Prior knowledge:
By secondary structure, the protein is mostly helical. It has helices spanning about 15-45, 45-75.
Amino acid sequence: MNNQEKPRPPTNFRGFRRKTDRNLALAVVIFLVGVGGALIALIYGGGAAILGVTCLLFGAGLFGLIWAVLTLMERWTREE
């Protein structure tokens, strides 16, 4: 091994956190709508599942709206 190793590039923790937050928010929405809709369909049937998924999508939209507002507030207040 060479004594003169190449320096590592700086780690971008903010970018990593932003990407992780986005992935977690997407996972919550997929889990909410997918698993919730499947459980409604299994327990109550197809007709109820359609209405249930519609309501779950509305809830996921509200979650996404709140997440987007908080993300914008963070970007506006960040000092650079």
